[in-house]
Amino acid sequence: MALKPATNPEVEAATIELSINGQTVTAKDGVSLYDVISSTGKIVPAMCYHYTFDPFGSCGMCLVMVDGKKAPVRSCTAKATAGMVVRTEGDDLFQARKKAVEKHLSVHPLDCPVCDADGHCELQDTAFLHGVTNLANAKQKLIPEDTRSLVLDFNMNRCIACGECINVCKDVLMIDALQFLKKGGYTQVVAKGDVPLSCEFCGDCLAVCPVGAITNKYSKYLYKPWQLKKTTTTCNYCGDGCQMYLETKDREVVRVTSPLSWKNKWGDRAETAKGHGGICVRGRFGFQYIDSRARLKQPLMRRDGQLVETPWLEAVHAVVDRLAEIKAKHGAQAIAGLITARCSNEELYLFQKLMRAAIGTNRFDSSSRYGHLNFVHAVQHALGIGRMMNNWEDITKAKAILLVGTNITETNPLTAVRVKEAIRVYKSQVIVVDSAQTNIAALASHPMMVTPGTEGLFVQALVKSVIEQDLVDPEVSGKHPEAFAALKEAVEKLSLDAIAAQTGVPVDQINEAAAIFAEAPRAIILCGEGIVRRPGGYQHVLNLVDLAWITGKLGRPGCGVNTVTEEPNEQGAVDMGAVPEFLPGQAPFDDGAAREKFSKAWGAELPAAGSGAQLMDILKQCRNGDIKALYVVGENPLATLPASLEVKAALERLELLICQDPFLTETGRLAHFVLPACTYAEKEGTFTNLEGKVLRIRQSMDPVGESLPDWHIMAAIASGLGYQVDYESAQEIQNEIMKLLPGYYNLGQPKKIAAKPDAYLSNGYVVEVKNRYASRVTRLSSLAENHFALIMGQLLYHSGKLSTQASGLMKISPNTCRLRMNAQDMERMGLTEDARVRVTSANGSLELGVQADLTVRPGACFFPEHFNEPAVKDLMPVEVDSITGVPYFKFARVAIEKA
Amino acid sequence: MSVGVLTKKLLQAALFYEIWDAMKVTFKHMFHRPITFQYPREERTIPDTHRGALGLLRYDDGAERCVGCDLCEAACPSHCIKVVSAEDKSLPLQRYASEFYIDITKCVFCGYCVEACPVNALAMTKMYEYSTHDKRTLLFDKKRLYEIGERHLADAKKYLIAHNQEKDNQESRDYRYFFPQSVLKATQPVPPKHLT
After folding, report:
1. What is the pTM of this model?
2. Closest-CA residue in chain B for A221?
3. Which residues of chain A neighbour B85 with C-beta distances below 8 Å?
4. CB pair distance less than 8 Å for B118 and A143
5. Nearest by CB to A113, which of B69, B87, B186?
6. Structural domains of chain B ordered from first start
7. Taking the domain A779-898, which CATH number applies?
8. pLDDT along chain A (899 residues), means of 10
9. Phi and psi angles of residue A340, each rounded to the nearest 5 degrees, phi first
10. Nearest residue in chain B measured CA to CA from A112
11. Which end of chain A is more exposed for a tag (fewer CB within 10 A), N or C?
12. In this structure, which long-range contacts are made by residues A176-184, counting pairs with CB atoms below 8 Å and at least 24 apart in sequence?
C-alpha cells in the first residue's frame, strides 16, 4: 500500500467496504484507491506510481470513474472511502488514458532504437497497449544530455516528469539528491542545485525510471534488455545479502539490476520493512571485476623463482605432493590455512573439513576473525546465541535504535535504509554514537559525536546512566538480584562527568540517550566496526548486552543486540566452523559429543582438542618456523595486516605457500602455487547474511579462463591427499551440511532466536563483571596540539580489497593517496589541499597529501582501509584481544606535522 | 493384328519414321531463339525486389546509417546476425555498431532485418555470387557489409523503394536519426529541419 503505514505497527487501521466494477471489496481506511484496485488483481496502468513511496499523481494514467464525479479521477491520489462505487474499465476510460499517453508521447523523442530502455520501457508498453500509432502536433524538446555525473547520464528529452526518481531518493533513501528544475522551458530532473550529481550512487533512481531518461554510464548502449541473461543471485560485497540480478551477455557482465524496478510497482508498503529491493552503489556499479582482465586464468607454479603458468593437473599434483611431504616430515600441525568470508557456505565447510579431516590440523582461520567473532563470542558467552538477534523488520519497526560505532550508510547501506525507514515511517528515535559526522547521524534524532576511540566508554556511560536514573527494568533486578548488584558495584567506579569529558558528550545528553533507549518499547542496538574492531571489542559487546539486559530488552519482541558484518559470509564462516574454536553449527571444538558426531560423519580422527591456532598464532608460528605450509584461500594478509606483524617475513619463511584467489594478490606474489579461483558469479552456493538468512548464489556465466570454483579445488586437494571426497557439485556439499546441521538451510526465513541470559547471569556473571567497567581510555589526557586519532575504515564505494578490482568503483572513488582531515584542523595547521604532511605513530612515519573531509571530526583523521598506497596501515599498532584473538589495528594515535 | 496395321509398321520401319519424328523437335529449335542463359558469360536481369546478399548503407555525407539498435538481430529468424553496439568515444553519446556480423550461410533471405531496421541501414542487393573455397569468408563482418552496400548502392536503394521501405532520396534523409546533444560537446549544433 503506497500510503505510509500507521506509525505504530501494532495499531490496525479500520476496515471499509467499497464497490469496484460491481464487486464489493474490503480495504483499510486511508489507503489510496489505486492500491485497493491493484489488491484485487486488477492492473490499471500508472507510470508515476510505485508502492515504496507516497503517490505523486503526475502521469494521469490511472484514471477511474467514481460515482458522483463527472470526470475520471486519478485513483492513486484519491483515498478510498467507504461506500465508493468505482468503475475501472470502459471505452471512455480507455480513450482518456490513451489521450494521456499521447500527451506524453507528443514530447517524447521516439528514439527507441538507440534508447537503453527499449524493450523495458513503461511508456513503450502503455503506448502499445493503447494502440497509439499516430501523433498530431508532436514536438521535440532538444535538451542537451547531462553527462556530468560519474555513473548516470540524464537524457531529459526522454523524461516524462513522473518524479519516481526524485520520490524514491527523497522518500525511501532519504538522500534527496535530485530535484525538478524548470530549465529551457521544460521541467527537468537535475541534481540538487543543478551541479554534477554527487550522491551515494545507489542507482535506485535508475531502477525506477520507467523510461530511458536516466541511463547507466557503465553499460550504456552495450545491450538491449532482451539480449541479456538474467541470473538472480546474492551480492558479495557486504553482509546485507541483497538479492540482485546479474545480467550477462556471453562471457561478460553487462549490468546489475535490483528487484526494485518500475516493473514491480505493485506491493504492500508494510512489506518494505523487510527490504525495499534496492541495492547500493557497490552492488549496482561494482561488477567489473568479475570479467576483469586482471583475473587469473591458469594455475601458477614457482619455478626458479618465477611464477609460471602450469596445467591444472600438474599444479594440483605438485600441491598435493608438497603437502603430503610436509605432513610426513613435520606432522599435520605444520600445515595451516586462512580463508576469506567471501567464499560460500559450502566452501567454508569443505575448507574446514579439508583441514581437519584430510590434513588433520586445527590451525586455520577465516576473515570473520577481524571483528565479527568478537560479537559472536560475546553473545554466545552471555546469551547462548550465535548471531544477531533481530532482522530487518525489527529494525524498521523499532521505536529506538542505538547505533554504536557504525557508519552504517557506508558499510551496510541497505541495513541503513531500514534505519532510515524507521526514522521516516515509524518515527523512531535514533541515537548515533560515532566519532565521525556520518550520514546517518545527520538524519538521526540524537546524533552524539564522541572522541575517537571512546565508543565503548560511551556504552559504559549509558549503563551507568540507566542505573543512576533508575530506569532499570524491575523484572530484571528482581530475577537476578546478585548479578544486578554486581553490575551496580562495577559501574560505581565510573564517573559520568569524567566520561563526558573524555567522550566530549555532555552528561545530560548521555542521560537523555539512556532514557530514550530504556523507555522505548522496541529498542534495538546495532554495533559496528567502532566497537568490534577497536581495542576492548569483546568487552564492549558485553557492555551492550548489559545495557540491553538491565533495560529489559533481552527476550522482548523487537528488541535486541545486533551487529553488521563487512564481508558477505562472515556469519556463515562462523556457522560452518571455519574458525578453530568452532565445529560446524558453532559447536565448541573441544566439546566431546560434537567431536564424536563430526568425527563419525567425516570418517576421520579430529585433531586433538586445544591444538587450534587463530590468525595471530598462525602468523607467529609461521615466523618461528612451527608452521611450514600455509593454504590461503582468498585472503591477503600481507596487504591487510600492518607491517609490524612481519607478515612478509612470516610468509617468506614458509616452505609452501599456496594462494587460491581470482586475482594475483600481494600474498600471491610470494606464493609457491597460485590457484585461480572463480568469483561468486561463476559458481553455485549459499551465503548467510547478517540476519542469518541463507541465500543462494547462482552461476551466471562460465568460469573465466581455466579458473575453478574453490570447492572444486579443495575437493581435488583432499582427494589427492588420500581423503576421498566425491562431490560432483556444490549441491552435494549442501546435502551433507543439511544432514549434519538440520534446519540450517532456512530458505531465507531464519527462525527467530531468543536470548537465554539466565544461565550466564546466575553463573559466572558476578565474577566477570567486576573488571568489565574498568576504564580503558587513559591516553587521551596528554594530547598535544598536533596529536590526532588516525582511523582506518571503510568507504561506501568500496568493500575490502576486492572492490579495488572493479573499475567502476575505482572511477567513482579512486585512491586519492591523501589523508582526510577536518577543514578546521587543516586551517589551524596552515594546510592547503596540495600540502603534504608527515604522519608519525609509534610504529613509523610516512609522508602523504591531505584533503578536507566534512565527515571527519576535529582532532581525527581518516584513511580508507581499501588502499595500501601509501601504506598507512603500517602505522597502526596491533593489539590482540586476549579472549577472542581478534587483532585490532584500525585505530592509532599519530602526530601530524607539515612536511 | 490386321494386315493394314502390319503394312504400316513395316513401312515406318523401312523409312526410319521414328527417328524423323524424334528429330522434328530438334529441327524446329534450329530456328528458335535460345532460352538458356550462358551464365556466367551472360547476366540475367533481376527484379528490384530480389533478395540477395545484405549490405549496410551510408548517408550521402558518408555517415553510417546504422545506429546499433540490435533490432535486426532480434528480428532474424535464423539468428545469423550479431550486432555489438557501443558508444562512440570521439562523439560522446552516439550509439553505433562497433561490430556487425551476418553469417550468410545461415541467412534464409527473408528480409525481416531490413523491415526491422528503423533507419533503413540494411538493404538487400542483387548480389548473389559469393561462392568461395573457404567457408569462413561467408561470415560477413562490418567492413565487408559496408563494401557490399557501397558497391551495390543503387540496387540497395531500389530494393528499399520496391519494398515500400522508403520512397526517394528525400525520405531516406528523413529517416536519419539525430543523436541528442551532450553537455560536453555539442555534436548537433543546429537542429535538423524535420525536428523543428
Report:
1. 0.92
2. B86
3. 221-223
4. no
5. B69
6. 54-175 (3.30.70.3270)
7. 2.40.40.20
8. 60 86 90 90 92 91 93 92 93 94 90 90 94 83 85 92 95 93 89 90 95 93 92 95 94 94 88 92 95 95 95 96 96 95 96 96 95 95 93 94 95 96 93 94 94 92 94 88 92 91 93 96 94 93 95 91 94 95 94 94 93 94 95 95 91 96 95 96 95 94 95 96 92 95 88 90 90 65 71 94 94 94 92 92 93 92 93 93 94 91
9. -85, 150
10. B69
11. C
12. A178/A205, A183/A143, A184/A141, A184/A143
